[in-house]
Write a sequence for this structure.
């Protein structure tokens, strides 16, 4: 019964009103759809796009950091190799006695007579320490030159400075040679000045 009454009522409504009701109904349904479905989904999509953008940026930054890390590791490897080479040139404290024995051996092989080989006070520099020795040897000019050449060819750095040559007697081929031999070592913790204790 109710549907027939509704149909009778609908038939009595003019066409213009029917169109208006239909249009109103469509607009109402569209509004409800937009408010309850489209707008929430649109906000969710916007948030997801922002999240995706942030993730893309994070990935790009991670790629840059990964490239930088690889470059840093390569640089670290090169620096480590250079440091290892530098350690060969600058002995540590434990290796100094062996180095000094090597210097005296080079002198003996060069047919020199050692008259004095005296350690002097160490001279701290930037990141290393100079270890000087007063050296006095006797021998011919050629033998002294051979000795200096052998010292210069050693793996460790040893510099000969303040060279003073005098013949032991007038017209003698034997020279009395005084000089300073300087080798070097890296500074260690023992070389750092003691920090005052906090009270």
């Amino acid at each position: 019964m109710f549907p027939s009454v509704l149909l009778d009522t609908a038939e009595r409504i003019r066409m213009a009103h029917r169109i208006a009701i239909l249009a109103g109904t469509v607009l109402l349904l569209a509004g409800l759809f937009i408010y309850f479905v489209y707008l929430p989904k649109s906000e969710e999509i916007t948030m997801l796009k922002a999240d995706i953008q942030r993730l893309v940026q994070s990935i790009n930054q991670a790629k840059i950091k990964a490239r930088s890390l690889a470059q840093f590791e390569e640089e670290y490897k090169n620096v480590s190799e250079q440091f290892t080479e530098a350690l060969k040139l600058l002995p540590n404290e434990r290796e100094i006695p062996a180095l000094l024995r090597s210097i005296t051996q080079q002198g003996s092989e060069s047919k020199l007579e050692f008259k004095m080989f005296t350690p002097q006070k160490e001279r701290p520099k930037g990141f290393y320490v100079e270890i000087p020795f007063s050296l006095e040897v006797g021998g011919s000019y050629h033998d002294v030159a051979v000795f200096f050449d052998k010292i210069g060819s050693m793996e460790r750095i040893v510099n000969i400075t303040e060279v003073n040559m005098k013949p032991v007697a007038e017209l003698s081929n034997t020279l009395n040679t005084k000089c300073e031999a300087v080798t070097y070592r890296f500074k260690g913790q023992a070389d750092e000045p003691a920090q005052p204790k906090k009270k």
